[in-house]
Design brief:
By secondary structure, this protein is mainly α. It has one domain. It contains three helices and no strands. The longest helix is centred in the middle third of the chain and has 31 residues.
Amino acid sequence: MGKLVNVTVKVPEELREQMRKVKTDWGEYLRETIRAKVREEMAKEAAERLEAIRRRAKAVPTEVLVAWLREEREGR
């Protein structure tokens, strides 16, 4: 996992009392939640970049695609 660093989160006192009643490894729960959010945001950013590339790319006519496929097959 790598070196761990401290991150502080402030929660209302009432919530902290409720958290103490729940048998959960809050550190691991929060690490996994943060990992999931980071993955989600990275995927969203990648999708936005891909969409930008698609918008800039020119459409390739079907005939050209067919010709490329035929050339590829004949080259095997």
